[in-house]
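Quick one - inputs below.
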Amino acid sequence: MSTTASYTVPSEAPAKAAPPAKKAMHPATKSKIIMTVIGWTVSLLVFFPIFWMILTSFKTEVEAVQTPPSLFFHPTVENYAIVQERADYFRFAMNSVVVSLVSTIAALILAVPASYAMAFFPKPRTKDLMLWMLSTKMLPPVGVLVPMYLLWRDLNLLDTRTGLIIIYTLVNLPIVVWMLYTFFKEVPKDILEAGRMDGASPKQELWHLLMPLSLPGIASTALLAIILTWNEAFWSLNLATSQAAPLPTFIASFSSPEGLFWSKLSAASTMAVAPILIFGWMSQRQLVRGLTFGAVK
Amino acid sequence: MDKARFAIGAAGLTAALLATTAGAQAQTTLTIATVNNGDMVVMQKLSSAFEEQHPDIKLDWVVLEENVLRQRVTTDIATKGGQFDVMTIGTYETPIWAKQGWLVPFDNLPEGYAVDDILKPVREALTYEGKLYALPFYAESSMLFYRKDLFKEAGIEVPDQPKWDEVKGWADKLNKPGEEQYGICLRGKPGWGENMAFVTTLANTFGGRLFNEQWEPQLDSDAWKKAVTFYVDLLKEDGPPGASSNGFNENLALFSTGKCAMWVDATVAAGLLSNPANSQVADEVGFAKAPIASWPKGANWLWAWSLGVPATSDSVDAAKTFVEWATSKDYIKLVADKEGWVAAPPGTRESTYASQDYMKAAPFAEETLAAIQSADPVNTTEEPKPYSGVQYAGIPEFQGIGTMVGQMIAAALTGQMSVDQALQSAQSSTERTMRQAGYFDK
Amino acid sequence: MSATTNVVADPVASAHVGRKSRRSVNTFPLVAPSVIVLVLWMIVPLAMTLWFSFQRYNLIVPTIQGFAGWENYEYLVTDPALWTAMKNTLLLVGWVLALTVALGVLLAILLDQDFWGRGVARLFVIAPFFIMPTVSALIWKNLLMHPVNGLFAWITSSLGLGRIDWFASLPLTSIIMIVAWQWVPFATLILLTAIQSLDEEQKEAARMDGAGPLAMFWFIILPHLGRAISVVIMIETIFFLSIFAEILVTTAGGPGLASTNLAFLIYQRALLEFDVGSASAGGVIAIILANIVAIFLVRSVARNLDA
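Output:
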């Protein structure tokens, strides 16, 4: 069976190139200038709180609370030094990286076969099953904290990365299953039919046909899961103590200490969000490309 | 087959990443949970000295914001999770947890520790049935801070024992919102350890109490109504905007940037306000006793951040060694050497106040000592009360009650409810809790 | 080739493949792992929560124990706080949904226009979605909305509007603003993707027919976005029903009960009063509410998704 010939990424993917050429040059340029001004004003407004946080992290504490706020000042990296001295950032960051990556991989391993089955061999109850899975996510986690804490204590999972990985795999599973389902449903059926004609088993169909076709979708699902896990604060704060504690715990020690703390808080916050922000920005194209395929199209 | 290979590969990767979590541990590691207050941050910084003295003990710090800390350590100790070896707790938790058998007692302390050197009210607050269950790291009462420069300018003399109606007059005079100078800053952020600590002392001195001898809540009594009305009016007229979200830290920031003429809060703020590194008004801070109204006692609270060892710790001896070190005379001297006497942990030991160096470095020392020594958790209120504690009631239910009542008072402060309404719903809600807990019949 | 398949994991499926037609393939082994895991995840804590909700169980008063009957529910249902919390939960979900969808549509259209530096501008717009809720709440609370030193206070007072004490006078509104800021990028991203998948030709055709920009928006773009909007509403509802960190950091549910939602109410019972019984009863009520929402909202949205 040929493996490469018949399927390429469907062309309805974000093939949107440059918009069609405008007729008259002059009004087009003028409207482009206006759009540029509006577009940038709005974007900068949305981004402003983050910009302000980063700016504040380079001020001294006294400058940080000054009114009127100062835009021009001598930047200092002192806050970062203080924060790093008080808590080893890299340990927390490493935990965040490991926990979000591994739990996302685990969720994908569980979810891919399930979504495949639901998308291609729907049973009458499939829809209900999916909704039920999603509704499990609406339960406020604090309601089950004490039972979980007791369980994790007995399983010796408190303050371990394994414990957090299990929790996050489960927390993200419904969303991951649902997103993959929508992506799989968009894969043209005739390609799979062709594969079946060649006598591919469901597993081969899944592995050789479906996975490559929906790779962008899988990638954007994974990205979303990583982002959600990185930013989750409740379970990480309560089930991890020190060895396995990820970045939300790091933030919790700077959230309202004595005295002036705004610039130290800003520095700690910048450190905590920087990796995921950069990661998100870099993978933004991938995220959009995946979304174009499935849920949204 | 490919799926299997993929699964194996992924599992291998998972295992490899998991393997990094398990590490062999040769020495004893103590996990210490503490609050992110300045004095604790200093302790964390200086703790390498302890590790040098005890090479077999490694310290692992978990520094959290107060509310998160409290919720973490309580969950852990109550479920016997065993995550911590040393916990930072207060005078409220210590006797309650000791009663449950959750804490290891500090009996047979070494001679050199000089347990009698610890101030009596503090020692008593941490004692349950004759045994100490936590050792105090620093202790505090409450006092009045004022700006000497502003008071001088306005020609106001602060007497030895100020009265609340005088304070109101001064606040009216010094409140200049146009210049971002507010007459008085007080706690408004809801929480049993935040606004309720202050409001309960205010109610005490207005002649109120939290519960009567039958454990019936007294929040709708005239004394509470008078006290809370006074508090709300005072802050509305002379307080900073956003008073209802100001706790200790927020007020500290306001006062040290010169935005408050007066502030009534924890004595530990004195050291922070007098330190030019943190405070723009370091030279201008005046100190006086916490103001009183009709009843002279109960106007200043008592609290001690202390270190306790949970019974679930698997290295009790090492943990006790650390606690003894961190609360010793030697530690106080170490702080004095490294950070200066003004930064020494206050309120715990008589020897600190006997030190010439400390008294010279800390202009507030005498007032602090007097405040702590005059705080009486047992004989506090005008009418007798069944509970121990000045600014709280030493029963397990109080955390929940205090937080809820604090929310109601904050609602009165923001004008979402009238004072009467707020106290009425605080009263009925407290009654429900107490009835549910079985303090009186249904 | 299928004859040689020797994956141990699911012999059932491979045995069936040869004989049965595709439609009736045994999907059980494929769905089973995640369903079983999820069932465990759902059932174990749920069973424990149900169990505890009928128990007298306070972590800090271990002496009081035993079967409580309906007492925990009785105390909860007769507590006016529960109904306020329900109302706040729904207000919060409703308003943030409305705001993120409306602003998301506008932003998506804006970012679909051709302008200089659009790629970078897009990065700026989606950035808030990557920020930890705790961090964004802390930043908004301290650096922006603080009534004395915050930037907003400086702006409004410079304009002669006085200072707004956000969390005291507009607690729920403030939280809605923060949460909306965090989730607008998500809506924008999804909606932008949807707009981009709209046929250029279709747009061109409408333009030829003389449709103005408003008509274009109303008759071409908006109907096309229906499905994407459903996706946004569904995913966001799941997260908004249990908003917690933003409230904990900013208002702690107050003043009074003004910003207490169901998740926060349960937090108060569980981690401030340590009343596990009562918190569990609250948890059960939250699950019921989530299911009602699931039935009404998610189902109607899901129908849209199928079309």
